[in-house]
Predict the 3D structure of the following.
Amino acid sequence: MQLRYAFRLDPTPGQRIALARAFGCARVVYNDAIAARERARAAGEAFPTVAVLSKTLVTEAKKTRERHWLGGVSAVVLQQSLRDAESAYRNFFVSLKGTRKGARVGAPRFKSRKDQRQSVRFTANARWKITGTGRLSLPKIGEVKVRWSRTLPTTPSSVTVIKDAAGRYFASFVIDTDPEQDRTRFSEPDPGSGLGIDLGLTHFAVLSDGTKVDSPRFMRRAEKKLKKTQRELSRKQKGSKNREKARLKVARAHAKVADARREFHHQLSTRLIRENQAVTVEDLAVMALARTRLGKSVHDAGWSTFVAMLAYKAARYGRTFITIGRFEPTSQVCSTCGIKDGPKPLHVREWTCPACGTVHDRDHNAAKNIKAAGLAVTACGVQVRPEHVPAPRGEAGSHGIQTGARAA
């Protein structure tokens, strides 16, 4: 499994200038590749290949007066920028065909020097290395100081240097992990241990064992400070240095909230995966919920990121991760006797089963049903609620038509 390990960088003023030059050259080559392909499309010609673009936009462009400054950065950075443009077009065409998972991908667009996030990638061909003193040596940039928070398990295959909207620099290493070694990092839990998770807003998660994880609401807690910094930004004159300073304050405030939320998700997901053999969650329509009046709270919770963390950590550490359909009536079925009591308004947080008399907490009961649905999936290997399939010929039409068809 390939994972990314990100570490904070502390470049010197000179290295910041060199990184800015690398960001700019990579952006120009990317935009030139997009422009070349758009010209070919307008002329009705075939798209130029990466090899042709590499020759015209990098090798020959360095010899011209307009693009001679491309020689001031590593050639690998420029080649990777061309590959990024190729990947952008590939994802766009696959999305048009409908074979790509996820949301529809638009056509590649030109990058701007005012984009808040910039990055360059160095592969093994660039001959970058980690020095004996723990610094990251990059070609034509120098040895950059790294804030190491943990050791790398194996030798990275590539490194991406990123500058985010808050002006921070990061080094993101691509690591190929060893599956056997990953499975031994955590002790094996009880083979029959399973957990159902009901995600919500009042509580971030209610577990099938009765545990309730409070929602931190990082955005709500920092909303007052965010409003103040945003108000200061709106009063600054566009294009002024004070406006850029105010923009950085806003970006840093948002980055602080995002970092706290990500740390919360990592700690909770790691604990749940470490302690349970199987974890089951419900497939929520997050994009649809984000368009309601609760949209800000939905975004603040970050359910999609948390579920994605559960999925990849389960695959890494040999656990079972199950997602059940969003139309399963988990809040309508009694987890004790199995009777379906019908839908209930959201303000009903507790209800009594009319059949067995059990008093249920709405979220805890849903978590129990989610766990049961997950166990059913692992037991029979199929979904709890199968998808719609065409009816067999013997079942189609009315009984009279079926009889006539058989007679014929």
User: Anything to note?
Assistant: Residues 241-275 form the longest helix (35 residues). The longest strand covers residues 2-10.
